[in-house]
Amino acid sequence: MRSVLRTTSLLFAVALLSGCGIFSRDDHQLTPAELVEFTPTMEVERLWSTNTGRGVNRSMPNFRPYYEGGRLWVGDHRGQVTAVNADSGRVERRFETGLALSAGPVVQDGLILLGTFDGKLVVLDAESGERRWTARLSSEVLSYPVLHDDVVVVRCIDGRVFGLDADDGSRKWIHDRSVPLLTLRGTSDPLARAGQVFIGYDDGMVSGLRVSDGSVLWEQRVSEPEGRTELERMSDIDGPMAIVGTELYVVTYRGRMAGMALESGRMLWVKDVSSHSGLSLRRTQLAASDRDDAVWLVDRRSGATLWRDEQLKRRQVTRPVFYGNQLVVVDKEGYMHFYDVDSGEFSARTQASRNPPSDAPLVVGNTLYLLDKDGTLTAWRAGPIN
Fold it and tell me: Which of 218, 245, 328, 335 is surrounded by the fewest CB atoms within 10 Å?
């Protein structure tokens, strides 16, 4: 979850945001909603807690746990990479990379993929931690790279997308798209499927690229930047997109949620929802939290609203994630909130951390994993109250 703004001119950003009153602490409309009382129908149990390093810092790197082969892999801003047993919370491996990490790790095919603030993609051996190769890119990496058909696809903050040979890091292709003057700090992860990779940009555009050579298969604008100022025209795609069957789903900031045909980019439906944290998908349902922190559940086939809850407004909640028949968000105070998917009513709440979450919880089977900004990783399980 990243709502920090970036621009080519820091002074411009500060002046613009101050003029718009975003930093005003006297505005009662910015007060987080009070937590409401309810009768819980689920009980939440913490299974274990483990320290994974120093967490994030003010530079806002993109860290979240990555699950692979029974382990959770976590990075921190000082370059430490930690592998934790997903069942017990026991630390199994720790690598000190000495890198200024900005995104990752992604662990695929025995490789650890890491992005850095100085514009590098670094690949380590997942067993030994030894460096396999390093590729110098054009700028900071905030999105998670993806390995698909022996090509590593990585997106940089300046809008360039690189296709790199997975064996040695040599450049196979580059796709360049300019970014607006003012955007949210963050980039959506490349999303690969069947020889294609889909990229969401800061101007509300989605591109479908061929993984093998980077050629453009289609481009479609989800939302048009509108307004008199750069701030009003922001329409970033920063959070996860989702694919099911032959359809792609995406949501933009100050813009729209949309369903799109995967092969052509044709718009199937659009809906006025604005979010910077992306979407979660389960069968016929999409979930998102909007820029005011209202939580939405939407029918993915038509875009129809199934329910919408505003009781956590302005609490800076994460992207909702599906957990069984529950929808789970975490707010800036570390409270984990459970909604019943069918009714949209609260079913449980627990304070999972004293620190804000680093990202949305990760669901693996019947376990929720949460990484906070201090680097503490916890595992949780919920079930009906007996």
Answer: 245
| Every domain of the chain and the residues it spans | 5-384
Residue whose token pair is 């997975």: 166
pLDDT tens profile 115-153? 999 999 999 999 999 999 999 999 999 999 999 999 999
Distance, in Å, from the CA atom of 349 to the CA atom of 81, rounded to the nearest integer, reads 31
Q: How many CB atoms lie within 10 A of CB 343?
A: 10
Which tens digit of pLDDT belongs to each residue from 248-296? 999 998 779 999 999 999 999 999 999 989 999 999 999 999 999 999 9
pLDDT tens digits, 328-337: 999 999 999 9
Query: pTM of the prediction?
Result: 0.90
What are 315's two structure tokens?
């609490």
- The contacts of residue 74 (CB under 8 Å, 6+ apart) are 52, 53, 63, 64, 65, 66, 81, 82, 84, 105, 371, 375, 377
Given the DSSP bridges, would you call strands 285-289 and 280-282 parallel, antiparallel or unpaired? antiparallel
Per the CB < 8 A criterion, the answer to whether 363 and 323 are in contact is yes
